[in-house]
Structure formats: C-alpha cells, structure tokens
Amino acid sequence: LTMVQDQATANISILVVDDVFPELDETFVVSLQGATLGRVADPASGAQTALEVTVRANDEPHGIVQLSSATVQLVDMVGSGGMRQVQAQVVRSGGALGSLTIGYALQWAPNATSSCSDQPWLPAASTGSFLLADRFVSHDLLIDFAEDIFLAENSRLCLSLTSVALTSGASPITTLTGASPRLGTQVSGTVTVTTALANGIVSFPQSSAVLAEGGAAVQIPVVRQQGLFGEARLAWHLEPDSGDVLPAAGDLVLPAGV
User: Which residues on adjacent β-strands are paired with residue 130?
Assistant: First the structure.
C-alpha cells in the first residue's frame, strides 16, 4: 500500500473467492506493519492497527432439507402383528455441515381428493423428529403405526417435514451467524391407500395339505394380508367334486380387523 504526498486515505483491495464446497463464515485479520517514512500507530494508544474481517457464508453451509419425492410408500409389515410403515427419503442439498434435528408429522385425510393443505385433517397419526448427522446428506425415514387405524380405500396419508434446526453439541460446528439450515420446497409427500392396502389380499398360507380319509372335520387356514379394513367376503369350491369331501363349496367371511 502506497500513499503519496498529500494523500490522507487509501483502500486495501481484497478479492473474496467463492467456495467450491459450502463452508461456514470465515474470519481473518488485516494488520498494518512495516511503514517506511511515517510510522504505524501504536496500538497502546488506542489506535486501530489490526482489522478483523468476516466473510459471510452465502451457500447454505448447513443445507436445504426436503423429501426426495412427492410420493411416499405405505408398506404392510408382514409378521409384525398388524403394523404398517410409511417410508420416505429425506435429503440435504447444498452444504452438509452440522447435525440437524428435523421434525415431521404424519396425517391422513378421508378421501383421494384431499391434499396436504386441505382441512379439516383427522388427528395426526404420528409426529416426531429425527437426527441427520453432521456431513450426512440423506436419511431413510421409517414411521410405524398400528393397523387398527383402519385406513379406508382411497383415503390419503400425508407426510410433512415441519421444522429443521442445527443441533447444538452434536457437531464441532454448532453456531453460525447469519446462516441456518432451512426446509426446501418439497416438504410434503402423499400416498393413496389402494384396495389391497385397505381391504387386504386373501390367500392360503401354503400350497398343499394332506387329509386323512374318514377322519374328523379339518380346518384349512386362510389369511388376509396388508389391509384389514372392512368385512371381506369370498366364495370357495372344490375341483374335482368327487362326492367324497363335503361340502364341495361355500362362503367365507372375514370380519373387519381379521
């Protein structure tokens, strides 16, 4: 820096290069030293000979959080005693610094025309939060709930991300002035309950059975999987009808929840 005769002020020019990868605020100190002619002021006199400069982050260092798809999955948990599971992927774009606590709500609406913004909603089936760890960019969100909610055919489930916050103490980087994680635009996902998911699929649990001739009446098990909503009725018959097994045809009724 050169100041010519009669010049009282001058500027130090510094070029700030944008980050290749999202980073936090950066701080550096500019010091005046080694003057020729004149002299650098004495800091002990209260004069400022060092200036702290902070470069603000402009690239979402903690990331933007949203769902990877507007459609979530509803899965029947076979062998779990009637539990179902909503499955969705949560992703973080931009930066991935810091651990995040992300809140969610799972609700359901009574018909297929309802959207995430429609009111009134039935009471939330599930609410909670989960942790997305420092440097992690995705999380598989799995929400279990009991089948006794009895979702009817064509009703809709809606999963919404409700909040995101930097988790203090979960990372060496816990605070950042002027920047924070935020939710993106895709924060809601839905699934429409199909006939199978509502009313279930009926089948035999095995492909063959052996019966003793002349024995007592036997029970052939039938199972209904996936949905247990409403009463399921179906007919059955024997082929060929030899007359040795009675009856040769009939009706089977599975009550709601069975």
Answer: 102
